[in-house]
Design goal:
- It is built from 8 helices and no strands.
- The chain is mainly alpha-helical.
- The protein has a domain of 57 residues.
- It starts with a helix and ends with a helix.
- The model has no long low-confidence stretch (mean pLDDT 80).
Length: 240
């Protein structure tokens, strides 16, 4: 009995040590597992932050490209306007020489000088980017001088002026009239493109698509026709 009394506390102490070691090992394992989870979370957060930064960089790049495209488009439209205005002026300067060479002259007008002044007034307003006033002036010219040899230019620039003034309904109507009345004019493809843009601004996308299709089919080699073809192809891909 005496021997038993001495051995039992020793064995109890041994069991306590083993249990303590097991608990310590379990605690150490739990700590390691938690540490691994924290490291995994931190790693995921770092990856997410890197991905977010990459997305932001791509977005900034795309915005920059968009701004460049808008700037190029504005510059292109300005060059196109200046080109046609210059061409219009050159052609009208050639008309007197052509008449002197024996080309049949148009029917006499009540006041050809006033006709010219009215057209110049509208054109000068357009050059000054006073689009609303220019549009109204061109419309007045079209109604006042229905037999004028400048009806084509007045119609085209009237359409352009109205579109720039955000009067897209009138702009679309005049662009359509120009393309239908003077289909052989070099500005006809641009007129159809302008009509499509005005229709899109009016959210009449079905009609705009039809005009782009007409432009692509009728003037496939023109710059406007090529742009229409690309847009139609892109629209077709999006629908798929």
């Amino acid at each position: 009995m005496a021997l038993l009394c001495f051995t039992l506390p020793a064995r109890a102490g041994l069991f306590d040590d083993d249990l303590a070691r097991q608990r310590i090992e379990q605690l150490r394992s739990d700590v390691n597992a938690l540490t691994q989870r924290i490291e995994t979370v931190n790693s995921n957060q770092l990856d997410f932050a890197n991905q977010l930064e990459s997305i932001r960089a791509d977005l900034a790049k795309l915005r920059g490209q968009q701004e460049v495209m808008f700037h190029d488009l504005d510059a292109l439209q300005k060059r196109q306007k200046d080109f046609y205005i210059d061409l219009d002026n050159r052609l009208r300067k050639l008309e007197p020489a052509a008449n002197e060479a024996g080309t049949p002259t148009p029917p006499a007008k009540v006041d050809s000088a006033k006709e010219t002044r009215d057209y110049e007034t509208a054109l000068n307003l357009l050059k000054a980017s006073k689009f609303k006033e220019a549009g109204a002036s061109f419309l007045s010219f079209i109604e006042t001088w229905p037999n004028s040899t400048m009806q084509d230019s007045a119609t085209y620039w009237g359409a352009y002026a109205h579109a720039q003034a955000k009067d897209h309904k009138q702009g679309a109507a005049l662009f359509e009239k120009f393309a239908a009345t003077w289909p052989q004019d070099e500005r006809a493809p641009d007129a159809l493109e302008g009509e499509a843009e005005s229709l899109k601004a009016l959210k009449d996308f079905k009609a705009a698509h039809a005009v782009l299709q007409k432009l692509s089919d009728k003037y496939p080699m023109s710059d406007a026709g090529k742009r229409a073809k690309r847009e139609l192809k892109l629209t077709h891909i999006k629908k798929k």
